[in-house]
């Protein structure tokens, strides 16, 4: 079973983005040259009341306060400026200064090692994830982004994903024949196929509508995304599988970053570091709040897999790990597992 991809033809998007980048670049250049200050457009695809949305707003406030209003961070949430299919290209072309994409998106632009974060059942908990993202391996991954004219500034958590559909999804047999929305990731597509489902690549902003229309049958998300996007209104069951991690990297356009003065880069970097710390601290809290809200709202069954069902899921997705190791080499996965084990 292949992955359905609803993306528009790449050449048309690229031409459109190049045009927008030319206009935006001229405007941004004038803004940087003007004594009034500097504007940083930060685009992301989730709601403001999510860990990433709240961290982006905290970053905006910190930069404004510390620069005395001279540096303005303009945040565009909910894919209002760019969405899943075009945000990375927009950043590379200079049509936006900063992004906070999910780690899956880096695989599509030449960094498949980032897909190790998508592996099902690799990480026992967020503390193990942070042994990579806050350690030497994570920094090595960010540093490599310079090959695509990007500056990796830091990682952020959104917690673990759970499965949703109009029936419980607690073991592989429950997935048979379902069309499951995924973000573009070869690992996540392989995961869904290993479970017996048909992966359908859709932009995050299109997911709720596709679920409501029956274009797809289910999806995977942290609870905060499931709640803030109103997916509980179009899905009867949320299964707490906690099968895989979802995280982000805040990145900047390299040319823009290098055009800033050293003091401004320091100011922005320090503000972002504090905002990411804040976002990581509230990630679990926001997911817990969303789960409480779901239970209070009613209408969505919260299903919990038994240990034997989790074991079946783990067994089914073992080939996904093997497949990624063949694609990126065993060294990346060996280093990740050493980091997780505290080595």
Written overview of the protein:
The protein has 343 residues and is α/β, with parallel strands linked by helices. It has one domain (9-336): 3-Layer(aba) Sandwich (D-Maltodextrin-Binding Protein, domain 2), CATH 3.40.190.170. The chain contains 13 helices and ten strands. Strands 2, 3, 4, 5, 8, 9 and 10 form a seven-stranded mixed β-sheet that branches. The longest helix has 36 residues, at 262-297. The protein is globular and about 55 Å long.
Summarize the structure.
By secondary structure, the chain is an alpha/beta fold.
Which whole number gives the mean pLDDT?
91
CATH class: Alpha Beta
For the CA atoms, what is the radius of gyration? Answer: 20 Å
Helix content percent band: 40-55%
H/I helix tally: 13
Order of helices and strands: EHEHEHEHHEEHEHEHEHHEHHH
Largest sheet: 7 strands, mixed
| Class computed from helices, strands and strand pairing | alpha/beta
CATH superfamily: Bacterial extracellular solute-binding protein, family 7
Quote the distance from N terminus to C terminus: 38 Å
Amount of beta strand: 15-25%
CATH architecture grouping:
3-Layer(aba) Sandwich
């Amino acid at each position: 079973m292949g992955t359905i991809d609803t993306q528009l033809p790449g050449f048309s998007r690229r031409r459109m983005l190049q045009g927008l980048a030319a206009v935006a670049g001229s405007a941004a250049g004038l803004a940087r040259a003007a004594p009034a200050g500097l504007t940083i457009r930060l685009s992301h695809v989730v709601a403001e009341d999510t860990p990433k949305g709240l961290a982006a707003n905290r970053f905006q406030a910190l930069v404004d306060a510390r620069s005395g209003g001279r540096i303005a961070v303009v945040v565009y949430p909910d894919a209002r400026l760019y969405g899943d299919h075009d945000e990375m290209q927009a950043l590379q072309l200079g049509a936006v200064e900063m992004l906070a994409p999910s780690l899956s998106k880096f695989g599509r632009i030449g960094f498949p090692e980032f897909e190790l974060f998508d592996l099902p059942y690799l990480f026992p908990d967020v503390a193990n994830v942070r042994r990579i993202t806050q350690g030497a391996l994570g920094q090595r991954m960010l540093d490599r982004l310079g090959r695509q004219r990007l500056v990796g500034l830091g990682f952020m958590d959104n917690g673990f994903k759970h499965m949703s559909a109009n029936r419980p999804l607690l073991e592989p047999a429950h997935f048979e024949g379902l069309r499951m929305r995924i973000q573009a990731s070869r690992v996540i597509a392989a995961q869904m196929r290993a479970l017996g489902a048909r992966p359908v690549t859709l932009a995050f902003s299109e997911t709720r509508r596709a679920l409501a229309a029956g274009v797809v049958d289910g999806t995977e998300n942290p609870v905060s995304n499931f709640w803030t996007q109103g997916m509980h209104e179009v899905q009867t069951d949320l299964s707490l599988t906690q099968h895989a991690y979802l995280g982000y990297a805040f990145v900047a356009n390299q040319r823009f970053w290098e055009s800033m003065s050293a003091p401004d880069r320091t100011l922005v970097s320090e503000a972002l570091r504090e905002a990411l710390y804040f976002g990581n601290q509230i990630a679990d809290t926001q997911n817990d709040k969303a789960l409480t809200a779901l239970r209070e709202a009613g209408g969505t069954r919260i299903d919990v897999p038994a240990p034997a069902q989790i074991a079946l899921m783990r067994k089914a997705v073992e080939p996904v790990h093997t497949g990624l190791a063949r694609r990126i080499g065993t060294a990346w996965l060996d280093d990740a597992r050493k980091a997780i084990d505290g080595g």
